[in-house]
Design a protein that fits this description.
The structure is a single chain. By secondary structure, the protein is mainly beta. It has 3 domains: 29-151, Carboxypeptidase-like, regulatory domain (Immunoglobulin-like, Sandwich); 152-275, Sandwich (Immunoglobulin-like); 277-394, Immunoglobulins (Immunoglobulin-like), CATH 2.60.40.10. The chain contains 4 helices and 27 strands. The chain has helices at 2-27, 106-110, 114-118, 122-131, and strands at 30-38, 49-54, 74-77, 83-89, 92-99, 103-104, 134-137, 143-151, 153-161, 171-178, 181-184, 195-197, 203-209, 213-230, 233-247, 260-261, 267-268, 273-275, 280-289, 295-296, 298-305, 311-316, 323-330, 332-350, 359-368, 372-378, 382-389. Strands 10, 11, 12, 14, 15, 16, 21, 22, 24, 25 and 26 form an 11-stranded antiparallel β-sheet that branches. A hairpin with a 2-residue loop joins strand 10 (171-178) and strand 11. The longest helix is centred in the N-terminal third of the chain and has 26 residues, at 2-27.
């Protein structure tokens, strides 16, 4: 009996030891350290960001509980000598990605996003391997790696009104060519600046850019803001009303703007935008029901260029104002397109004290109308415009198989 008990005890110890060994093995990590340097100065890249990204989809070192495709990446800042150290790195294969404002991340140069990194195909893996250091981490074996950053390009200029006064506080955005269209350059996790705000003199500067062709775009915007002041602090919410894009050189459309190309390390100035105040006008009117002429209090209105039907601007009918309004319209011929016109009722429900906005609005749709287009010519301010919308077309009966 005693021998049996001893045997059971020894089996228990062996099992516990095996479990502990397996647990220790699974928990074993290592340290990744090294330096980051600036290629243009050979100086340390101080306070640069260094990130470890899993090199393979099956090698995600920490899975996010919110989804099977989400992961956490480990990142640190370099010290004043450019050194970094990332501790408790799980075994696996990683890309070492460094970034700093003004410099180009190699992934940004390839146009690779964080989502691309999670599930790279073989072609993408080969491209990444050419420009990004790749390391293999083994349990309890430190890894050392150095990274060099290339100085990116920069573009700067001013946004002024035609009387010379600065257009302060406007967002300036970079566009890149994608097939036959100009689209906003996407921000990523690798410190690529894609937009900036003009300062009090109307000046802007965007740096850390890759070598390619660009356009500059800014927007004249109107918006409504709600402020809440209380003992607990100040809160604000905003809602956009109207926006008009203006491109490089003061063109109203991307196709009429002059693109420019940048080389790595180039600092290009003089990409200015002038806003011609005297050639901008307002267009204001109401939507009515064609059936009985009553004013419709909800709808989306687009202002399209007459020649190619591209959108110049869009606006919604705001609650409490039955009029639609385009505040900045360049001179020319347009088509006014109305969609989603409806008769609606609004009901406010108070939010908890201190919330911004103080109430939430529920919209109840009473009647919907069809879409319509109306041609207009703008060479001055237009007020009192009436656009009649038809009844919704009857739905065709569908045969039941």
């Amino acid at each position: 009996m005693r021998c049996c008990s001893l045997a059971l005890f020894l089996i228990f110890l062996a099992t516990a030891f095996a479990q502990q060994t397996t647990s220790d093995k699974n928990a074993a990590t290592s340290t990744v350290s090294g330096h980051v340097y600036c290629a243009d100065t050979n100086a340390p890249a101080r306070t640069a960001t260094v990130m470890l990204e899993p090199a393979d989809a099956g090698n995600l070192h920490q899975q996010d509980k919110h989804g099977p495709d989400a992961t956490y990446s480990t990142a640190v800042l370099t010290l004043l000598d450019g050194s970094f150290s990332i501790m408790r790195v799980a075994p696996g294969t990683y890309y070492v990605i460094a970034s700093q404002p003004g410099y180009v991340s190699p992934l940004a140069a390839l146009g690779i996003s964080a989502a691309d990194m999670r599930k790279p195909d073989e072609d993408l893996k080969q491209k990444i391997a050419k420009v990004v250091p790749r390391i293999t981490v083994q349990a309890n074996l430190p890894v050392s790696v150095n990274v060099t950053l290339e100085r990116g390009a920069a573009v700067s200029g001013t946004v002024l009104f035609d009387d010379g006064s600065p257009a302060a506080g406007l967002e300036v955005q970079l566009l890149v060519r994608k097939k036959d269209n100009w689209v906003p350059m996407q921000s990523g996790p690798f410190d690529v600046s894609t937009q900036a705000k003009t300062d009090d003199r109307g000046a802007y500067r965007i740096s850390g850019l890759t070598a390619q062709e660009y356009l500059i775009r800014t927007n004249l915007r109107l918006s409504r803001m709600t402020y809440e002041f209380s003992q607990g602090g100040t809160g604000m919410s905003s809602e956009g009303d109207y926006s008009l894009p203006i491109y490089s050189g003061g063109a109203w459309r991307a196709k009429d703007a002059a693109p420019f190309s940048l080389r790595l390390g180039e600092d290009r100035g003089g990409e200015d935008i002038q806003i011609p105040v005297n050639k901008l006008h307002s267009v204001r009117g109401v939507i009515t029901a064609a059936s009985d002429g009553h004013i419709v209090n909800s709808g989306k209105i687009s202002l399209l260029y007459a020649d190619d039907k591209s959108e110049a601007a869009s606006a919604d009918i705001a609650r409490g104002d039955s009029n639609f309004s385009f505040s900045y319209v360049p001179e020319g011929d347009y088509i006014l397109r109305v969609k989603s016109a409806s008769d609606v009722e609004y009901e406010d429900t108070p939010n908890p004290p201190g919330s911004v906005p103080p109430a939430r609005t529920t919209t109840r749709f009473l009647h919907s109308y069809g879409s319509t287009d109306q041609a207009i010519h703008v060479d001055g301010d237009i007020t009192g415009l009436t656009v009649a919308v038809p009844e919704q077309p009857a739905k065709k009966a569908q045969a039941i198989p």
